[in-house]
Write a structure and sequence with these properties.
The protein is built from nine helices and three strands, in the order αβαβαβαααααα. The chain is mainly alpha-helical. The chain has a domain of 128 residues: Divalent-metal-dependent TIM barrel enzymes (TIM Barrel, Alpha-Beta Barrel), CATH 3.20.20.150. Helix 2 links the parallel strand 1 and strand 2.
Length: 207
C-alpha cells in the first residue's frame, strides 16, 4: 500500500496489475509478491483468480507482518503459504501452466544463506503438504458448499508432518538431511569471510 511509494504512484493492487498485463498482451504476466499486499488480503484467492485468467507468471516468496518486510517464507503465516500451494497443485494439469518460483527476502538479522535454506525448505514443505490434499473430498465439499469439510480436508494435509519425506528426498539427491546444521559444521561462512571481508561502513536494512 505504501512501498515503494504511495498508493497513487505505483501499480496499486492485483486488479491494476491484471489490467496492465492484459493491455500489454499475451507475453505479459502478473507476479505475486507475498509481501506487497494490503493487510488481510486473501492472497490465495488472488492466485486462484490469476490462474483462472491465465495471467499468473510467478512468485516472490517471503512473508510479512507490517508491510513488505521480506521475512523468511512461512515465518509468519505458514498456513497461507500452504493455501497458495494448494491452488498451484490444483492447477498443475492446466496446459502450459508453469509459473516462476523465486525467493525475495531481506536478511537484516539472520545469515542470508541460512535464511534462504530455511525458506527453500518451507516452500518445499508447503508443496508436499498441498500434494497430500484429498482432491476428491475437497471437490465434493466445494460442490456441496460445505465449507467446514473443505477446511477440515485442507487442515488434515497441512497438519501432516512431511519432514521425513523432505529429508529422504534430500538424501536421495545427495544433499544434506539437515542443510543448516551441515552448513554450519562445514565452516563455509568463516572461510569465505577471510577471502571476502565485510566492507567497512557498509549499511544494511531497507534502503
Amino acid at each position: 500500500m505504501y512501498e515503494p511509494a504511495f498508493y497513487s504512484t505505483v501499480v496499486q493492487d492485483w486488479g491494476s496489475n491484471y489490467l496492465i498485463a492484459t493491455e500489454l498482451g499475451e507475453q505479459a504476466y502478473c507476479l505475486v509478491d507475498l509481501g506487497h499486499h494490503a493487510p488481510n488480503v486473501n492472497i490465495e484467492m488472488i492466485v486462484a483468480r490469476l490462474i483462472q485468467f491465465g495471467k499468473l507468471g510467478g512468485f516472490h516468496f517471503n512473508d510479512s507482518k507490517y508491510g513488505d518486510d521480506d521475512l523468511d517464507s512461512g515465518s509468519i503465516d505458514p498456513y497461507r503459504l500452504f493455501l497458495v500451494f494448494n491452488e498451484l497443485v490444483d492447477s498443475e494439469a492446466v496446459s502450459g501452466f508453469d509459473p516462476m518460483h523465486m525467493l525475495d527476502q531481506s536478511h537484516n538479522v539472520t545469515d542470508p544463506i541460512e535464511s534462504l535454506m530455511m525458506s527453500a525448505t518451507e516452500v518445499l514443505r508447503s508443496y508436499a503438504q498441498a500434494v497430500l490434499v484429498d482432491r476428491s473430498a475437497l471437490s465434493r465439499a466445494q460442490e456441496s458448499n460445505d465449507a467446514l469439510i473443505a477446511t477440515s480436508t485442507l487442515k488434515a494435509a497441512f497438519r501432516t508432518d512431511v519432514e521425513p519425506i523432505l529429508a529422504m528426498a534430500r538424501f536421495e539427491k545427495g544433499g544434506a538431511i539437515d542443510p543448516i546444521a551441515t552448513y554450519r559444521t562445514a565452516g563455509y561462512r568463516a572461510e569465505v569471510a577471510t577471502i571476502r571481508p565485510a566492507a567497512p561502513g557498509a549499511g544494511g536494512g531497507i534502503v
